[in-house]
Structure formats: structure tokens, C-alpha cells
Amino acid sequence: MTSLPIPLRTAGAAVAAVLLAGLLAIVPGAQGRASASAGPTGPPLSVPQQTLDDAVRCTPDVHPGSGKKVVVLVGGVGFDPADAWGWGYSRALVRDGYGVCEVTVLDHGRGDATIGAEYVVNAVRYAQARSGQKVNIVAHSAGPALSLWALRFWPDVAASVDDMISLAGPIHGAHPVNLICSVGFCPVLAHQLSMGSRFTAALNREPISPSVSVTSIFTLFDEGIQPAREVSSYPGAANIALQDHCPGRLVEHVGLMYDAATYRLALDALSHPGPAVPARTPNLCEGITLPGFDIATFVPSFTQGAIKYLGILGQPSLPAEPALPRYAEQG
């Protein structure tokens, strides 16, 4: 059994207090530079192009001459890139030889998921155009729903992605979110990420292109994304419950972003054709945190992100899920 150090257990308890109130999602991002050219297929984007481009930031080695694979990091509500990834995945992926791009969704990802997905569409196009090759996505919490929506409805985006790696994704919604909506407070994102919503039905009505290898990693100890095995599994994906391979591993929702075993599985998917294969990963369950994890940065970053996450309480409460865009109603 793996136990967390005292600071991480304390942070985990704080996470639980937040997540039991609903869904957690994390979105990295910042300062894009060049414009990404629009793909030939998929619906037009409603967000202005300059706004989308300003929401993307890539490391300097994302260019054709570097020879490095590129990972686009996507999250959801509350956390900017430094808060979400700067103490973990960004550092580890750069250390392991990957180029990294991050995307910021409008209003910290607290609004309409169909609009948030447009930021992912543009980030993938931007990263692909800048690198000259297919790119990969690693997404956490609500980020997988946004990413799969982008892959589902924009064929050029699906053609530009090799691996899609979901960490604790409410791909079919999440039961605690339904409970939130049942008592009255329900912003648009909560409606959309409820089990049985029109959004999740449209997302899962048809599979994304088989050219994209999907790995979905989730923890049975998640505070907010439950029932984890049911809502985080995606048809045709490598659906990996962490505790099936590392019994008793004490990892909760945010913990998947610093967990060593989860990172090894993500690297396995990124470094091989197809999705992750746990049996192919040596020493899968050893250690606690991913390489380069900086707890001194994590603690204040988590605090700042949690404060912004709680801003979802200020979102308008809607009596019902809003209508989907026409392209999703038809597809």
C-alpha cells in the first residue's frame, strides 16, 4: 500500500472538501503567439481567433527541427498552467524530452463546455502547425470531456492527434454533479457534466476516429468523479483503474496529477504505438510522486487554484441544461 507524505495527505483532505461539493477541473494556459491555421473540416469556431491564440503557450522547442514529440496539456476549472502543471507534468515532460503546450480556457474553464472545447481545438491546431507533426493530449478532470468533444466534432483535430490521455475524466458525467443539480445550484458546466446530460450523450453517441489512441486512467478513491469505473471508461480505450494494478494505492482526484504510477502509464502511452499497457511498465507502483515534483510550489499553487475553482459558485444557476450547438444536435 502506498501512503502519502503528511503535506500531501493534508492537501488531499483540502481537495476532498472542494470536490465533494461537485466537479473539479483544471485548465492550464497562457500567452499564445502565432495564429494557428483553421482546419478544413468541422464547425466554425465562435470565439475570436486572436482570443484563442492568446490562450496558448508552448515551450521554445515546439518546432519541426527539435524532433521532440509534443504534448498539449488541458484541464478545467480554476487552475492556470502554473497552478495545474508547473509543479508536475510540465516539469516532468520537459525533463523526459517532450515539447509542451498549455491552453487557458475562458473564465478558468468555469463556463459552457462546448465553448471551452473550442480552445482545445485551436490549441491542437496551433501545436500541430508549430511542430509540423501529430501531437498528443494529456487532460485532467473536465479537460478530457473538452478534449474528446474537440476530437469528436472536428475531424482535422482528430487527424492531428496521436494519443489522448485522460486523467480522472467525467466522460459520462459524474453522479455527485447530479446531486448538486438536484438541490438547485447548477451552472451550465454542472448541467453538462451530469450523468445523462445531452452533452455527455452527444459526446458518446459516436466514437472518435480510431486513429487516436485513447488511454483513460482513473482512481477508485476519487472524491468527485464517481462511479469512477463507469463514468471514466471510454469505449475502445485502455481504461485503467489505478488500484487494479497498484492495490490500495491512496491516490485521489488531484493526486493523479502528481502520482508516479499514473505518470509512468502516461509515458508508456506516449512512447509506444497505441494506448498504455500497464504490464509493459516496469516498476509501475514504485514511488509516490512523478519526477521533479515540487511540493514547495504545489502547496501555494493548489491554494490559488482552489480559490479560483470556488469561483464556480458565482456562475449563473440555470434551471436546465442549455441547448447544444446545432452541429452536436445533428451528429
UniProtKB/TrEMBL annotation:
This is Lipase. It comes from the Bacteria.
